[in-house]
Amino acid sequence: MHVFNPVFYDEYNLMNYLDFAVMKTAKLYPDVLREEIYLLFYLIKDNFQANMKYLRENNVDVDCFGFLPVRRNTRNSVEAFFDMFNLINAENYISVLLYMNDKKNNRYDDLYKKYAFKGDFTIISKRDIAKDHGLGRITDDEKMAKIDQVESGSNSYIHPSIFIPLYTPADIEAKEEILRDLLRVNTWLLGGAYHQLCCFILKKYGSLKSFDCLHCTKNAACFECFENYYVSFKEMIEQELFPLSQECGSDEPFKNMR
Q1: How much is the CA Rg of the chain, to the nearest whole Å?
Q2: CA 103, 108, 112, 114 torsion: positive or negative?
Q3: Which tens digit of pLDDT belongs to each residue from 97-143?
Q4: What digits encode the pLDDT tens for the residues 160-178?
Q5: pLDDT of residue 258
Q6: What is the DSSP code string of the chain?
Q7: pLDDT value at residue 218
Q8: N or C: which end of the chain has fewer CB within 10 A?
Q9: Contact partners, residue 97, CB within 8 Å, separation at least 6
């Protein structure tokens, strides 16, 4: 049976750090918990961690949809990231979100009229707003194309459908490439969202208060530790994702992992 590589769940990892950082942020900046920027960051973080929990329990061999929950969460996180970026960088973008939440009682700023599609703001609308307000500063064309590809490829999984592509146990290589692309995009979104949250706090409060880091002795908001976990996670994505947990009926777990 193929399983998601347990190396992603080492004792000290990116998920541990994020839980710690969120706890410290909530304690040091309680008011930020009501900010739209924080809520969108938390949504992206929550989707990321939900994906990892799902993958830990998933039986890759019998997964016929190709990680359907991860696809749904990824689509959700991409849109949340565009909203987060636009709230920080686009004037009065909150009017777009208010309008989308209640079209009857709200009106969006005329600045965004050209982005609306039949009176609606799609994920493409939000992406184009982000591009026109400096998204290129934090990502290149190649990465943006990959985000677009993964996001559009996940649209078919938002609603129930029995007509999407199916996978058999023999499609293990195809499944690995699907998941690798999903993980690459989710990791980039998470890193970008965390960076934007920190920049938002710095701008709003004038400084980033220090705290004892999780696994080092630095008395600071340790972005170096985050970067180390972040880079390590990205490197793991490029390793074998699905080692065999058992072979030929062996009861030795993960005997072929190393």
Answers
A1: 20
A2: positive
A3: 999 999 999 999 999 999 999 889 999 999 999 999 999 988 888 88
A4: 888 888 999 999 999 999 9
A5: 36
A6: -B---GGGG-SS-HHHHHHHHHHHHHHH-GGGGGSHHHHHHHHHHHHHHHHHHHHHH--GGG-SSSSHHHHHHHHHHHHHHHHHHHHHHSTTTHHHHHHHH-TTT----GGGGGG-BTTB--HHHHHHHHHHTTGGGT--HHHHHHHHHHHHHHGGGSS--S-S----GGGHHHHHHHHHHHHHHHHHHHHHHHHHHHHHHHHHHSS----B-SSS--BS--HHHHHHHHHHHHHHHTS-S--BS-STT--STTTT--
A7: 59
A8: C
A9: 36, 83, 87
Q: What is the pTM for the complete model shown?
A: 0.89
Which residues of the chain fall below pLDDT 70? 210-223, 246-258
